Q: What sequence folds into this?
């Protein structure tokens, strides 16, 4: 090794200068490169920088639960695994789709169509609630295929399965029609939305507020960072006026009767039971059978399953309580009676004579009731008395009182798609039937036959009005919604309107209904522990497509306790054959036995020995 | 006091701190404040070293060497591991300490001390043998970048000391040729990546593409502080440490990036100038060592972000977040300050009557006062 010949001073200084020169050269190189990147190619890099994008992804909120009046959970959320794809991240799409098609039992074309319709950076759910076997397969696919992932999600869990499925409803993925009107309220593709029942009615309450994450995606389509912009807020829990145990009792009693009727008649029929607070309209039970299992709907019902429900002769998808309307039969006499008293056509102490017929119209007791008081005409359901009263007051007056009792308009219960029934008028008949209104039509209507159609729930409202002294209440299922922080976000106020019928007239109607229980048409509900008052109804039908044998519909409307009415129980059985007193009243009896067990009025604070 | 070195340094620190603030205000946080605290401590260290006669480093060289050796050993045995490399010692509440940064300064001091004496073959071999353990212990952490810094420091300082240039260049060429055999695969991939980052076999070229795009998109005037699209949204990974220069490039544009370069060039020239006018070989070697350290790191770091140098993971002096580095670089500048200060002081203010200078006398009295 050779050293610098002069290890002296000048050598060091010279070499420091060389180092300075070399260093300056390197720095100039950096400067030149920066000039190239930032000055000469600045525009190009600016364009490339903007290919790095920001996407805001929404985080679902936990949906509010549905609980009964005692806090028993009816609908809650259960964890589940779902298969999602992010179209923008998929590679070798064809092969991936082939694998998925085998797993999901759907054609690759269908999958392709779904994926092309979706947003490229928003995960698309292909299947919810994966069962163990499918989950294992799906996980394998997700691990080897970019853009496919397994995600944890929530699915609605129904504690009592089918119970009250008509009113609870179910949740499904929002469709394009629903989205069109709701996009402004924050709904987006892929969001869950209540499809029927309370889930639909209170969707805006239950859904909570979605949170959002900001996701940065680079030029190559990869997620760089993820920030939480807004946390999601769980939907408030919805407490109902419903009593789950009472609902179960009602459904059980109704179900047993319907099962025996099916055996006896050889055709499926439906029925409803409503239990409602007469003062507030709070609905304690609302049974409509047959009903359907909401669980397939929650996970996404398959076409075959849905077809089977549509073709079921019992029409399980129809909530007869509010979607259907029927002739009220003799239960309508509550209205005819109060309208007649108010019009002064008779008094509470009037005596009538029934000879078995009024003109061409017969009493259901062909031999006639003979001399009969106003109250007993109610108790024994004498048709002739009401033919006469109806004929005398005329259709205009009768119709006015129907409207005052809420017939012809929806009751306003917090459920979607309620029917208004049918309150006929001469103008209506002229328009639809091209015929004039005959006195016979009025006479027919005065005993609840003919054109008039009411929903079972409307009949419950009428009964409640008779029981509570003339107030038409609005049936209400929701008691209150309580947010997770305890704040009450919804509490419907009871709503009622007065019917202009004097209290003593309604008291007479109630006496008549009490009489029906003690010695009239509905002795089946004569319980020792509570005074029930009721009115039966039997609707005669002519054979039709849906009722080939023209079987009777039967009704039983009632309230209790007689002295200070608290609840109304209305039972309706479709094409059941038989009579209200023998078929419907025993169902009400079981409900009353649940509501007022023996000794209910004697229960006091336990004595201290 | 002469502030000509400190002025460009201060300007650079302020500019780069703003970049760090911008890079960390979104998501991270706290780094900019801590960095300011490190700078404050570093300033005290720097001024202290300026006032200390650099010739006392001859006595300090050996203890410094021992401390560095021991702390490097501690790192290997009980170090704090990040990304598969053990580089930090946990100091509890005081944070972490990175001995490899200290090793850079130790190498400068030890090499300058040994090479300042009359140069001989034996002395050169002794210097290499003394520095070899530091190099090896850093290489096996593994920290390729820092060990490379030590080699470059040794080589340049040997050159300045007077070792034959042809010999040094020949050994450097041999070393580069042998490098692929010594390197681990990931290090080799990373080194080659800068040539064509778009190939990106394991997503490593990604950082390079992103940083180049960020700097280029800054244009002439930049997008404005805190307004860089890529900086603010995390599109450039590690932009508060090794890739801090992308923030300068994107948000402050060509004006900002060349401003940093010019300030650094000024500092570089002033440091070498101090060495040039040094009283002795020791001062000259110390200054060329410090200049080399800063220049090499600046070139490799900025070069990496704009595709001129391989990705070896060296911080940008005075810019990248990290306390150990800041302290070491400011201490290094403090040593240069001392070399400069000593050369401007008369040996003995009273005896040097040939060049009576008021400035020199004032400085001498100030130094005497502060020493007491």
A:
């Amino acid at each position: 090794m050779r050293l610098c010949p002069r290890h002296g001073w000048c050598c060091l200084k010279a070499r420091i200068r060389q180092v300075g020169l070399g260093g300056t050269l390197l720095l100039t190189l950096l400067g030149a490169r920066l000039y190239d990147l930032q000055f000469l190619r600045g525009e190009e890099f600016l364009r490339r920088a903007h290919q790095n994008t920001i996407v805001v992804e929404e985080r679902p909120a936990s949906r509010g639960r549905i609980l009964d009046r005692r806090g028993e959970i009816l609908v809650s959320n259960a964890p589940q695994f779902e298969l999602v794809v992010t179209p923008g991240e998929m590679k070798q799409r064809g092969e991936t789709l082939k694998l998925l098609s085998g797993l999901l039992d759907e054609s690759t074309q269908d999958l392709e169509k779904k994926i092309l319709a979706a947003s490229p950076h928003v995960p698309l759910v292909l299947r919810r609630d994966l069962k163990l076997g499918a989950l294992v397969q799906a996980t394998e696919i997700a691990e080897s295929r970019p853009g496919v992932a397994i995600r944890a999600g929530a699915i609605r869990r129904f504690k009592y399965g089918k119970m009250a499925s008509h009113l609870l409803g179910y949740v499904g993925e929002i469709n394009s029609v629903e989205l069109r009107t709701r996009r402004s309220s924050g709904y987006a593709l892929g969001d869950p939305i209540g499809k029927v029942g309370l889930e639909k009615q209170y969707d805006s309450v239950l859904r909570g507020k979605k949170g959002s994450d900001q996701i940065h995606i680079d030029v190559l389509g990869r997620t760089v960072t993820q920030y939480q912009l807004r946390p999601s807020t769980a939907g408030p829990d919805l407490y109902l006026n419903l009593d789950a145990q009472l609902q179960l009792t009602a459904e059980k009693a109704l179900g047993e009767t319907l099962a025996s009727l099916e055996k006896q008649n050889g055709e499926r029929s439906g029925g409803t039971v409503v239990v409602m607070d007469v003062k507030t309209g709070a609905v304690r039970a609302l049974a409509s059978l047959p009903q359907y299992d909401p669980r397939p709907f929650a996970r996404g019902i398959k076409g075959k399953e849905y077809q089977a429900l549509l073709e079921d002769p019992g029409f399980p998808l129809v909530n007869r309580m509010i979607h259907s309307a029927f002739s009220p039969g003799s239960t309508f006499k509550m209205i005819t009676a109060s309208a007649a008293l108010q019009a002064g056509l008779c008094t509470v102490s009037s005596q009538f004579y029934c000879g078995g017929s009024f003109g061409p119209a017969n009493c259901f007791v062909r031999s006639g009731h003979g001399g009969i008081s106003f109250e007993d005409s109610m108790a024994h359901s004498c048709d002739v008395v009401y033919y006469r009263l109806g004929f005398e007051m005329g259709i205009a007056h009768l119709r006015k009182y129907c409207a005052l009792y809420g017939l012809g308009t929806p009751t306003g219960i917090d459920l979607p798609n309620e029917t208004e029934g049918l309150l006929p008028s001469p103008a209506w008949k002229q328009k639809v039937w091209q015929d004039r209104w005959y006195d016979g039509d009025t006479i027919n209507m005065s005993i609840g036959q003919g054109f008039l159609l009411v929903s079972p729930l409307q009949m419950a409202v009428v009964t409640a009005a008779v029981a509570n002294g003339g107030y038409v209440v609005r049936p209400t299922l929701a008691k209150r919604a309580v947010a997770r922080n305890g704040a009450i976000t919804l509490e419907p106020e009871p709503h009622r309107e007065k019917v202009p019928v004097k209290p003593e007239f309604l008291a007479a109607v109630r006496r008549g209904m009490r009489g029906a229980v003690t010695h009239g048409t509905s002795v089946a509900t004569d319980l020792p522990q509570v005074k029930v008052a009721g009115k039966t109804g039997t609707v005669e039908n002519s054979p039709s497509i849906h009722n080939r044998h023209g079987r009777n519909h039967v009704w039983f409307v009632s309230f209790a306790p007689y002295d200070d009415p608290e609840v109304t129980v209305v039972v309706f059985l479709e094409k059941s054959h038989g009579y209200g007193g023998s078929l419907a009243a025993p169902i009400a009896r079981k409900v009353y036995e649940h509501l007022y067990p023996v000794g209910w009025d004697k229960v006091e604070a336990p004595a201290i020995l | 006091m002469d502030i000509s070195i400190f002025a460009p340094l201060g300007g650079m620190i302020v500019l780069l701190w703003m970049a760090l603030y911008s890079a960390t205000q979104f998501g991270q946080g706290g780094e900019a404040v801590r960095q300011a605290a490190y700078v404050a401590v570093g300033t005290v260290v720097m001024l202290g070293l300026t006032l200390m006669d650099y010739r006392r480093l001859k006595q300090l060289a050996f203890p410094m060497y021992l401390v560095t050796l021991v702390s490097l050993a501690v790192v290997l045995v009980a170090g704090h591991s990040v990304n598969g490399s053990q580089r930090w010692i946990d100091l509890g509440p005081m944070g972490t300490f990175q001995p490899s940064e200290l090793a850079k300064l130790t190498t400068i001091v030890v090499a300058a001390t040994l090479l300042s004496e009359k140069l001989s073959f034996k002395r050169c071999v002794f210097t290499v043998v003394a520095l070899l353990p530091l190099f090896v212990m850093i290489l096996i952490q593994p920290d390729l970048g820092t060990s490379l810094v030590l080699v470059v420091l040794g080589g340049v300082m040997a050159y300045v000391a007077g070792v034959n240039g042809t010999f040094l260049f020949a050994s450097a060429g041999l070393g580069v040729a042998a490098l692929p055999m010594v390197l681990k695969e990931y290090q080799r991939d990373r080194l080659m990546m800068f040539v064509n980052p778009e190939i990106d076999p394991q997503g490593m070229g990604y950082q390079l593409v992103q940083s180049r795009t960020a700097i280029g998109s800054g244009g002439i005037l930049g997008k404005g502080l805190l307004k860089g699209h890529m900086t603010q949204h995390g599109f450039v990974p590690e932009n508060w440490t090794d890739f801090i220069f992308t923030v300068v490039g994107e948000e402050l544009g060509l004006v900002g990036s060349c401003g940093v370069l010019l300030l650094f060039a000024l500092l570089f020239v002033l440091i070498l100038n101090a060495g040039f006018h040094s009283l002795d070989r020791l001062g000259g070697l110390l200054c060329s060592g410090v200049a080399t350290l800063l220049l090499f790191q600046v070139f490799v770091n900025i070069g990496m972000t704009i595709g001129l140098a391989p990705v070896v993971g060296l911080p940008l002096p005075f810019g990248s977040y990290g306390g150990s580095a800041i302290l070491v670089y400011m201490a290094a500048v403090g040593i240069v300050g001392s070399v400069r200060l000593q050369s401007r002081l008369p040996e003995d203010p009273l005896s040097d009557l040939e060049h009576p200078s008021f400035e020199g006398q004032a400085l001498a009295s100030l130094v005497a006062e502060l020493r007491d």
Remarks:
- Chain B has one domain: 6-371.
